[in-house]
């Protein structure tokens, strides 16, 4: 009798648990995952507006030059579409870039022109402010993904890690295709069912959104397929409707996005161009990217990605171990491993998995907070006054003290001369004081028409891949004087010449003999990066200009 009464009581308890939405903890999942899903204490609107304000400030603080692609593969192309002038690099002649990403900025430029806001100052700042909107969306979905996987305690610390990390502050708001790819990756992962645990399923039909976002990311940057192949394989393994996934969702959605992209590229290239195939041939089958330098296979693990994660690294590793959420940590290892096979490596290539590693850093910080709150209860009960800061407070101080100076230095100081020089020339050109410009420096070392915003004759030294003979830029760097003398024999003498101080010392006599004088000198860097120290960018003008 007692046994039957006990059984009936247990059944009634389980029924009440189901009604209240509670769940029994799975032994293989972390505490955060096993807890019932609750509504976030912060609305999506509040999180987005907070992130947007932060990213807009972030955009205004970026005053340095990082990588040519920020300007030459996005804004320069967009400027050409919107205003009819701008330089297309050799990649566009070879058809290995899609117009999908630059087109967004081209439409934005058109809007500025219609509103008569395309002034030098606005043209310089506006593109990064537009990018700040995309970045804020990425921040929001990092919070939402973290909340869906681990709950609010982890989500708020993951967002803190995202906003505090120096490299995200330095790179995320720049107009790289990698930045938009990162946002699409974060939003897409949120909608993929295979990324979540069995206790926290994605909303019904969300997989189609995840597929569409994955296809869009691959259309913008074909190497994004590295990420989505991993996620797709997870989905194939975990789903019960594999045929539906492949034939009803994957193929139709992928075909639609690919078709739209091909139509846009057909319109812009004026011929049929299959960009993903050309990209694959150049970067993977022919190792064309190696022309711009190579690193050892372990570079991402020993230098590249570790520098990006920076002082969050120990927290990231601890979070991976504590959470045991191998799906996401496996994605990081998968991406780093496949990119390590390629000879040409860059920090921004693995930007999409940096926020994922910061989710794990947030997990580790949340664990410190939970542990600190338990210890705090014990100390209050013992009435002992402790003057020492908690582990959580020390961790936060350590992360902010190490990342904020790095972020400010890289955004405000390091390699700012290239941007300052072009900003100066843009304002001088608007006053009619600049007639033409020659850049005697390595190729793509400054922004171009997208910053100048004036249809003046300009000339830079070419560095397109060539077989046999070194490119102009390489020949100039090998012997600046001889190259400049030969170059001047066929030029139409410019009103201004821009060069680094490292080459200026060799060309002083050449510049004086051709009636040029220094008009402005801009600080550029305290230390060398991949060449001799380029401490300053110097602008020379003709004496009668």
State the oligomer. single chain
The structure class reads mainly alpha
Q: Give the tally of structural domains.
A: 2
**Which bin fits the share of residues in helices?**
55-70%
CA-CA gap between termini: 107 Å
Strand order of the largest sheet: 2-1-3-5-4
Average pLDDT number: 89
The strand count comes to: 5
Order of helices and strands: HHHHHHHHHHHHHHHHHHHHEHEHHEHEE
Beta-strand fraction estimate:
under 5%
- Which geometry do the CA atoms define? globular
Summed up, the helix count is 24
- What integer value in Å does the Rg equal? 27 Å
Largest sheet, if any?
A: 5 strands, mixed
Low-pLDDT segments, ≥5 res: 16-34
Account of the 3D structure:
This protein is mainly alpha-helical and 545 residues long. The protein folds into two domains: 44-370, no CATH class; 416-542. 63% of the residues lie in helices and 5% in strands. The chain has 24 helices and five strands. The protein has a five-stranded mixed sheet with strand order 2-1-3-5-4. Helix 21 links the parallel strand 1 and strand 2. Helix 7 runs parallel beside helix 10, helix 12 packs across helix 17 (326-341) and helix 16 (313-323) crosses helix 18 (354-382). The radius of gyration is 27 Å and the shape is globular. The N and C termini lie far apart (107 Å). Mean pLDDT is 89; it is low at 16-34. It comes from Gossypium raimondii (Peruvian cotton). InterPro entries: GPI_mannosylTrfase (IPR005599). One of its GO terms (molecular function) is alpha-1,2-mannosyltransferase activity. It is an enzyme of class 2 (transferase).
């Amino acid at each position: 009798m007692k046994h039957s009464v006990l059984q009936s009581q247990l059944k009634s308890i389980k029924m009440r648990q189901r009604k209240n939405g509670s769940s029994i903890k799975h032994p293989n999942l972390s505490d955060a995952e096993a807890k019932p899903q609750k509504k976030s204490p912060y609305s999506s609107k509040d999180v987005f507006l907070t992130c947007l304000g932060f990213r807009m400030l972030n955009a205004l603080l970026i005053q340095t030059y990082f990588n040519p692609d920020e300007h030459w593969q996005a804004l320069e192309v967009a400027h050409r579409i919107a205003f009819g002038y701008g330089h297309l690099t050799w990649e566009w002649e070879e058809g290995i870039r899609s117009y999908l990403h630059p087109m967004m900025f081209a439409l934005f430029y058109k809007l500025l022109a219609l509103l008569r806001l395309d002034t030098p100052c606005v043209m310089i700042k506006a593109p990064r402010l537009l990018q700040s909107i995309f970045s804020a969306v990425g921040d929001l979905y990092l919070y939402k993904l973290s909340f869906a996987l681990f709950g609010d305690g982890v989500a708020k610390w993951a967002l803190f890690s995202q906003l505090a990390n120096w490299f995200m502050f330095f790179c995320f708001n720049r107009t790289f295709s990698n930045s938009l790819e990162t946002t699409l990756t974060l939003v897409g992962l949120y909608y993929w069912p295979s990324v979540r645990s069995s206790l926290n399923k994605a909303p019904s039909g969300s997989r189609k959104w995840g597929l569409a976002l994955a296809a869009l990311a691959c259309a913008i940057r074909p190497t994004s397929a590295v990420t989505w192949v991993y996620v797709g394989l997870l989905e194939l393994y975990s789903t019960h409707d594999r045929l539906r996934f492949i034939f009803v969702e994957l193929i139709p959605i992928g075909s639609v996005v690919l078709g739209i992209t091909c139509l846009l590229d057909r319109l812009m290239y004026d011929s049929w161009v299959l960009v993903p195939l050309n990209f694959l041939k150049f970067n993977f089958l022919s190792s064309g990217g190696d022309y711009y330098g190579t690193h050892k296979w372990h570079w991402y693990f020993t230098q590249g990605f570790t520098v990006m994660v920076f002082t969050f690294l120990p927290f990231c590793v601890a979070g991976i171990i504590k959470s045991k959420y191998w799906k996401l940590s496996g994605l990081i290892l998968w991406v780093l491993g496949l990119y390590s096979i390629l000879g040409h490596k860059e920090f921004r290539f693995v930007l999409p998995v940096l926020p994922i590693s910061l989710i794990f850093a947030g997990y580790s910080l949340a664990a410190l907070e939970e542990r600190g709150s338990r210890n705090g209860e014990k100390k209050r009960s013992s009435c002992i006054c402790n003057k020492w800061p908690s582990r959580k407070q020390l961790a936060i101080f350590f992360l902010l003290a190490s990342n904020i100076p790095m972020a400010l230095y890289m955004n405000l100081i390091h390699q700012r001369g290239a941007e300052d020089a072009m900003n100066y020339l843009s304002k001088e050109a608007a006053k009619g004081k600049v007639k033409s410009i020659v850049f005697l420096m390595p190729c793509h070392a400054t922004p171009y028409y997208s910053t100048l915003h004036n249809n003046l004759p300009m000339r830079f030294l070419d560095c397109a891949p060539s077989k046999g003979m070194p490119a102009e830029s390489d020949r100039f760097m090998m012997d600046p004087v001889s190259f400049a003398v030969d170059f001047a024999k066929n030029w139409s003498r410019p009103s201004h010449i821009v060069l680094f101080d490292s080459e200026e010392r060799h060309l002083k006599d050449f510049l004086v003999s051709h009636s040029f004088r220094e008009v402005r000198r801009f600080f550029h860097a305290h230390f060398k990066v991949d060449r001799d120290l380029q401490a300053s960018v110097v602008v020379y003008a003709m004496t009668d200009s």
